[in-house]
Amino acid sequence: MSVTDQAFVTLATDDVYCQGALVLGQSLRNHTTSRKLAVLITPGVSSGMRSVLRSVFDEVIEVDALDSADSVRLALLQRPELGVTFTKLHCWTLTHYSKCVFMDADTLVLCNVDELFDREEFSAAPDSGWPDCFNSGVFVFRPSLKTYNLLLQFAAEHGSFDGGDQGLLNSFFSNWATADIGKHLPFIYNLSSSAVYTYVPAFNHFGRDAKVVHFLGATKPWNYKYNLQTKRVMHDGTTSGSFHQLSFLALWWNIYSASILPLLEKLQKTEQSESEERKHTFNGVEITLKKVEPSEANSLQMPVPPEQTYEMTCPPEELSFEVWLYFSNLYVKLNNAVLTSIPLSLTDLQNNLLLILHFRKPQN
Question: Any idea where this protein resides (predicted)?
Answer without folding.
Answer: Cytoplasm; Nucleus
